[in-house]
Batch of 4 targets.
Target 1
Amino acid sequence: MRILIITHDKFQYLQQQKKMRWTRLPYHFSKLAHDVRYVTKKEWLLYPFIYISFRPEVVISAGKIAGLITALHYKFNYLRLFTLFKKTLFVHDLTDHPHFYINERRIRFIVRNHDLITTPTQYNLEKYDCNELVPNGSDFIPLKAKIEYDACYIGQVHDFYNTTQLEEDCKNAGINLKIVTGLPSEEVPKYVAASKICVYTISWDSSLKITDYAAMAKPVVAVKPNLAEKIGYPAYYTENLADGIKYLLKHPKLAEKFGKKNRQWFLRYSGTWHEQSIKYLNVLERYKYK
């Protein structure tokens, strides 16, 4: 397939240090012998010309601006004149929880103006009537390492993630917490492996954190209430994360049990990025010939 992908990323896969869903999936599409053209943020204005010259069979967008670009393209239909009379499949991947950064009207517009809406989250699948659920993957594997931290958190540290409060609570509770942020994805596993417990501070059910933690068979303390419970994610849910960490530290056998369950959940529900890419491509094949 010729697949045109437009996202908010600034760099291609090999240049991207923090490899997210739509840097990883296109890379694996290419590895699986598909012809992929990746439109980065700096190329948005060139999208019409890239579309005309590339003549894709499938167009996939991810992100609020990219999704708007392809939704407008789909709605007004002008550029389809250049597809040599072959219908292009327009796809939008509704990642994370878009209501935090896109107003409802725009989300509904994007969902309405694509042939296929995919998502990695059960919440979006139900709330926005998405067509297909394809969870995130992870290429992390369980590692043996010398334990250096009681707990670790990986990911962004914006206010939304409540990491400042987590640090303060852990300090007051005498918990040795490691915050892992701003590192290339490939460097993260060694810090996770060196921690007894991992921490999940938000209530989303699609963050890359949960699949990465699970892939490494780590016990997780997660904030409650949490949408991750809806997909059966086996964490120790608690309203106070520091108290939850202390509880699992005092009950190592229970922590070990959570870690094993997490790995089993990962193998059953998720899988590697290569495996998720195959799932996504199978979805595209089904809808392309509808």
Target 2
Amino acid sequence: MRVSFFLPVFGVCLIVLLGACNNLPSASAAKTDYNRNYDFSNVHKVAIQQITRDTVETMMVSDVQIIDINEALTAELQQRGLQVVTGNSYADIFLAWRFVPDERATVSTFDTATQKMTEGMLYVDMIDPVILQTVWRATFRARLPDPSDSEAAAEYSREAVAAILAQFPPSPIER
């Protein structure tokens, strides 16, 4: 075969690969804000809050996607040396998350034949269990893959959560 055949094929493969890399989450993609007066050194146990199905946004996230995100959060928190507990009474902090799809996402995304990916903002809040206020928040531009491709969706969730929690807990501020 001639080299002239391989160059266009190589070019197409390179474009596809670069496009795939652009879809991967990165730590710089997550934006965080937190209460600089809060003492995060006392945070050792985290309780992940359940998703309530009371809005269109929460109904658009499938059970499989919720499980993937919760499992990814649990694994990443444990990797950071934090314990994930099931009861709020045992927690030093609560973790609540929600996914808000873009406005162009409509109820038609319930049609699994047309749903490929839902884009929107993923918010992760760390809430103090005593004062019930958010003390740390990350926002992340997310693209939830079609849950029918469970391995790809789970991998994306792991990568997104790693990017989101890359800055948690924040470093103590020297006074």
Target 3
Amino acid sequence: MAAKKFKDIPLSILDLAPITQGNTVQTTFQNSLRLAQRVEELGYNRYWLAEHHNMDSVASSATGVLIGYIAGGTQTIRVGSGGIMLPNHSPLVIAEQFGTLESLYPGRIDLGLGRAPGTDQLTAMALRRSRRDAPQDFPDDIVALQTYFSAENRTARVRAIPGEGLDVPIWILGSSTDSAQLAAAFGLPYAFASHFAPAQFVTALSIYRNNFRPSAYLDKPYTMACVNVIAADTNDEAQRLATSFYQLATGIITGKRRPLQPPVDSMDGLWSEYEEAAVKQMMHYAFIGDGARVAAQLSAFEDDNQLDEIMVTTHVYDPAARIHSYEVLKAAQQS
């Protein structure tokens, strides 16, 4: 089988609907829609939104609602969740929500699922209420979702309407080897969160591929990895834009979270030596530079890992610069 090359594989987008310093959530949503419309024009494959809660910098907590907004403002790009944190929800509710989305925007909706809460434990308890064992129920909840989506469920006493009989592709998302085992056992496509959890990435891909069982949904493994990319016209400009990303990551590590900050000329005084090392370890798969540099880095990444698709997330303060980053990346891939 011929090796997959970066220039030939689909590129997709992960958006956390970043709230930037000095701007409103309404502005955030408008920026996300403009980005989705532009990357659709550029030929990106998917536009996914991530469920996070109780975070000053993330506005995508009502993920299904925001997916509807983005899908309603675009025409062809697939829109979905990267992901829905299933322990926070009843499978029936998710089947109904995504059945509604698929009915409104047929053939364009993806359902990526994760088992983490996407937040701190106190917020997770507020979300789940009495579902304290929800993460352990994840495999059973996936089966329940598949059942609600099946045409065969029409004779059941509990049905998902809308949802029943619809083709809503389910993905397993993960940042560990546990998720790889699960995706392989279910025969579902697998997306790895290498943009913030690089440590087990290579091992997880190997486990998924070696243990994959063909299913009614997928006959062979399909892998996607999410990475951080900040591209600009020059390497210096990309590095400056990346300081917003570094400040965000430092806040995650220190627990001092705040909206996405403007770029700065230097990170000196904004992180300690330990914090800098921790950020760079967590963001191991961050590709920052001009188009040529980013394309070369991603080409090597694809050569090493033979992914079927790469998903990109870009934390840049200026919405125009964020859009331009995706323009530079796509042009570099096609050159």
Target 4
Amino acid sequence: MSRAKLLLATSNRGKFREMRDYLRDLDIDIVSPEDARMGGEVEETASTFEENARLKSLAWSLKTEHLVLAEDSGLEVEALSGRPGIYSARFSSPRPTDEKNIRKVLRLMTGMPWPRRRARFVSCLALAQKGKVLKETRGEVRGYIATKKKGNRGFGYDPIFYYPPLKKNFGELGAEEKNKISHRGRALRKMKAFLRSYLAPSTKRKGEGG
């Protein structure tokens, strides 16, 4: 009998890689939309991370029999009234890139004193199947917007997000180190615990008739 599949509903390769690596020891095959030969995107029309994650997971779950895990995440800067927030990936539109997004944030923060540079990363996950949400989790991590980029690891705003406990920018952290403390790692930790429990009954049943 073939194993169940989990579709990670994202076209962001950095995000897919982080999520896949964190969940890879579960008893389930993890696939991307490309692996599943499913094209298209789901427009993020909601006003919160939670709602966008839910919207995407439900929409993708109607296209496949697989479990679907969707995420919405972003950077919230206190001095910018929570921006870029849900617009983090497209903050420098039109034709946004990670580099352009970073430059825009640094430009807006020019001359801002350190105490006013507080920020947080937020990650919201939604797991769905056949049009029904099964579980939602949230994770966040607090830090500061650095005055300049450091490190070439990670993606998005990682090079300018300073994390005081480690005295490093996220862009300086290896994948394993980052996953232990990041917003996405914290949300994934809760989701992984749920998935492990959710998948256990089917695993047990599979071994019972033999």
